[in-house]
Fold this protein.
Amino acid sequence: MDIYRGLRIGVVWTLGCAAALVAPAQEARRLVEQLGAESYKDREEASQQLWAMGERALAILGEAESDQDPEVAYRARILLQRIQTGILPGTPKEIIDLVQRYHRGGPMSKKAAMEELRKIGAFPQMLRLYRFEKDPDARQACAELVEEAVVPAVEAKLAGGELDAAEILLELAPPNEANLRRLAAIYRTRGKLDAKLAEMDGAIERGDLARMEAAGKREFHSRRLALLRSKGDLAAARTVAEEMERDDLLAAFALMDGNPVPYLDWFIAREAKPVARIHAEVVRQRWTGDREAEAKLTRSILTFAKEGGEEREPAMTSLLLLGKRDDVLPLMQGEFRTSLFEYYDAVELPDSALAAVGYMPGEDDRKKWLAARTSAFTEDWNDGDAARAEILQVAGFLQRRGNTADARALIKTVSDIAENHAQNTWLEFLSELGDGDEAASMELAFDLAAAKLEADGEDARPAVLMSSLFGEGDSAMRLWTRIGEISDAAPPDRLRLLGGIYGRLPVPVAELDDLLEKLRAGIDEADAKERRQMLVDLLEPAMTRDSAGDVVELLERLAAIDGPERWAKLLATYFGYLADWKKSAAQWEVVIANEDTTDPYSLAAHAAVLMHLGQKEKAERLLREVEMRSLDESLKLLRLAMTLQVWGAGEIAERYWEKLFLTNSPSDWYWRSAAGQGVGYAQDRRQWRRAAAFAEVQGLGYLRSNPTLMINPVVYLRSRLSADLFRGLALAEEGDAAGGESLLEGAFEILVGDGVLADDFFPLVRQAGLAELHDRLFARAYLRLEESIKSYPGAHNSYNGAAWLASRAVRNLDDAHDKIRKALEMRPRQAAYLDTLAEVWFAKGDRKKAVQWSRKAVRDSYHANHSLGGGNELREQYERFQNDPLPVP
């Protein structure tokens, strides 16, 4: 039977508070008297009626448990146990036996009984037993078991559509903050939130709180606060949080208003790490305007950075997060030189990047540099990881910037040493090079492999190379064989072609298209098994090079062989990436129809697609289900919001970011992890102070973990850029033009040359009407890129960076067009470059050409890895070019 039937508890939110339990005491007392009646029938009828009254009779039965009449006391005790544990006339005997075993035992026996109840899914009885347990030792013994049972039990009921049962479980659950939040989420998504709040307001008006003990009052306020946060009533929630002295929630609420000071105070009061605490104090002084205190505190952080010790790295990180670039860069020389290299590379100071690692101009100096590093692993390969990484870093830099000969020479030296150690060592080095973060390293890996094929001749072992370059799958090897069958390319050239169709090597477009056409030939004539294998083999490189148009064609052909459900999720994803929402929706229908247990994030993605199609009502129905199943858990809300964002439903995602920040505490790890999203959606709403406040929280997040300078310091400087950009815009909008411009110029100074300036900085400064500042700073940033290109005229990404900067600033557009054309000559199907050309045309006012080139970026690009990597930028750009107003110079 359904053990949840009849367990609805008819109480208001002040569950457990005697003042709020309104029982018909007179009737209960009359029935208790009948428990001692002479007639067995009368006693039984009284028992049944009291049992039916449920919790309304508990107070009177509690009194009767000590009645002088043994029959009355016995029956009252049995009824108390039944009502408190949810035992009904049809409850299975196994559950009844375990409940009785629980009541007979001590703390550890009770824990054992609880474990057995959990195994058989008797969650209501578990929760009721715990709720009415008075022995503190027994409560402690069972607490973890009970809490662990709540969420899985509720989730199972929600997934099965048993909404009443899920609600009952949460009403019975221990009234801690997490369970109250979950119950509030259920009430909200079931449309009961206002009624529950009205019940609580009624209790306040009746004066019920005056009759409660301190613990009861606190529970009442906790429940009401959970409801108000769930509803999004920030003002009322703030009032209750103040009364409860919930500094964490008041800090979060203040952030929503664009004021980080309460959050900083809360952080400082509880933070143990000294540098993180001082950093927060510095930020606080910046926002409150105490420059003298700010300077003094900053000097103390600089002292930590200079003195060394365990606080050195956190202190240097803090200084970067504060924008004190010039104080930190000199301290990075030596131990952190590779990160210093990355900084100069990112801000288009290529000569400074090489100088940071000691790779100086002059052939003799560079030979000495290389010899010093190779000496670390000439004898023992495993001793030279750091030295080898530095060589690979410089080689990748040179390859990316068009100095291929020098890059190959560096890699050849390391390769020769590896080969002298052992063949396996050389293959490990090839894999290490091929696993690099950037395309340049992959290109160098293919150069080595091609040279190996040529040198070994008939003794070459291509299968071994395939494994190192493409992983353990078989498709690459089969394609290698087929390329040999359909062309007369020598092994090194065959490898180049294979790298091309995987998007890992730049191969002329015509040559690549011709090869793909030949590889497709014969598929239709093959038998079903061979045809499927040929399609799968072509699908792997198409997905790797991210040619979405080719991927969709291959997936549709595979679906015709295997049935639609096998490939539906991939097709739904790629159709969505291509903004073909109708086809994406159809595939999601197939996915959901064939999932045993529907993934809530599949429902969310489907809802986002339906929003694009204008089917709002159906989309909202799906979202309500996902929202209910989330229980306002921080991780689930984060995943829900991110899913919607990836699928282009950013406005809908914002409601869930908001829910996350309101219904959870900033002490929660996922709350803090989402701070960057708080910046983003506040920016979209042009709420500059809120964006700046969340940017400060994001910066503190780096210091709360284990801050390191083994990553590019640009990461930390961008955090400061973000905070100061939005605070500067707020000041300018509020009438403090001088203060705003000072902040904006300071933010610009720490990252001159970084591509991030083009993304938001210049468009927002121009839209703020700060034309003189915009043009002056743009001229400096553009000059930096032009000088970098002059030093390395083969650096295709620098051409793209300059064109992107100009297009976003709506300046120098003819020159931008020339530069992006140059980049595309070198990498004709690079997605980012095609998108930049579209941006240039958009800035020029030619919507048609912008859409045309954006379509190519989305559908026919290589090397992008956007479609399945969580990136939706190219598709959003495509839709923006179609629908948004043209930019104003």
About this structure: The CA atoms of residues 306 and 312 lie 7 Å apart. Residues 1-23 have pLDDT under 50 and may be disordered. Residues 175-229 form one domain.
